[in-house]
Each structure stands twice: as C-alpha cells, then as structure tokens.
Design goal:
With about 160 residues, the chain is of the alpha+beta class. The protein has helices at about 120-125, 130-140, 140-150; strands at about 40-45, 55-65, 105-110. It folds into two domains: about 15-115, Jelly Rolls, CATH 2.60.120.10; about 120-160, no CATH class. The chain contains three helices and three strands, in the order E-E-E-H-H-H. The protein has a three-stranded antiparallel beta sheet with strand order 1-2-3, with no helix packed on it. The radius of gyration is 19 Å and the shape is globular. The protein starts with about 35 loop residues before the first strand and ends in a 9-residue tail after the last helix. Mean pLDDT is about 80; it is low at about 1-5 and about 65-70. Pfam families: Cupin_1.
Length: about 160
C-alpha cells in the first residue's frame, strides 16, 4: 500500500470506483450567514479521494458583498470580471473584497491535495492566545480583542505569561 505524504492511504486498485474521481460538493452555494460573510467549500483529499497523491485540489469560495480577509503588502488591486483568473504565489497573504451588489462565486486551485486554509481573524480571535499577546502583536486595545474573541469564539484572558 502506498502512503502519500499527506497521510491518507491510497486505495487498493481493486477497491477503486468511478465515484472516487467525482466530487459534487462544489455545486452547492456555501452558507455565508457568518461574521465573515463568506463560505469555503474544499475539495481536498479528505473530501475528494481522487486528488489524493495528485498534488492538486480545488475549493469553492462564496462571498457576500464586503468580505475582507487579510494582507501584509499590496501588490495588486484588481477588479475581476466573470471568467477572469488570478494567481497568488504559494503562502502569500491575500484578501478578496466583493465590491458588487450580489454574492460572488470564485474557485481556487491549489498545488497540493491537502493545502489547508488559514483565515486570519479565526486564527487570532478564535484561539486561546492570551488577550495581552494579541494586543501586543496587533496594536488593538484589550476591549477590541475581547469583543472579537467573544464574537468568534476564542478564549484567553488578559494575563501575564
């Protein structure tokens, strides 16, 4: 049995079916009724067995108007139209903003069967990082950090470490 670096075992060829190479999860609109007004539907190896070991995957991103993620430096500000394609270098922090009046749909492809997704607000504020640590690294005041932790489900109080 082959074991790819992603940790998912490959199926025996005798057990492979056509269904292993078809994923229908990207045809459904994601639930955007959350604080970020966005939904990510992954088709990574955990959801789509056919990409296991291929070094590729895809995800669907539904955005309500006004979604903002994170960024460190602005390289390009570009308004995309239906059918346009844009690339981001691997690991580069980036953001998308839906400036239209209706929900937007995007598809992202990855050069990994299990790329992972890191959404900065959740990484910081749905964590158990101490509030004091977040205030020191983001320059937000403790009240703002506590409010964001309360909204996103984080814990970690103001304390010395």
């Amino acid at each position: 049995m082959n074991i790819p670096t992603c940790g998912y075992s490959c199926k025996s060829p005798a057990n492979v079916t056509a269904n292993d190479f078809v994923f229908s999860g990207l045809n459904k609109v994601g639930n955007t009724s959350n604080i970020l007004k966005a939904a990510v539907t992954p088709a990574f190896d955990a959801q789509f067995a056919g990409v296991n070991g291929l070094g590729i995957s895809i995800a669907r991103l539904d955005l309500e108007p006004g979604f903002v993620s994170s960024d460190d430096k602005v390289y390009i500000i570009k308004t995309l139209k239906k059918g346009d394609v844009m690339v981001f270098p691997q690991g580069l922090l980036h953001f998308q903003v839906n400036v239209g009046g209706t929900q937007a749909l995007m598809f992202a492809s990855f050069s990994s069967a299990n790329p992972g997704i890191q959404i900065l607000p959740f990484a910081l504020f749905k964590s158990d990082f101490p509030t004091e640590l977040i205030t020191q690294t983001t320059l937000l005041d403790p009240a703002q950090v506590k409010k964001l932790k309360a909204v996103l489900g984080g814990s970690g109080s103001l304390r010395h470490y």
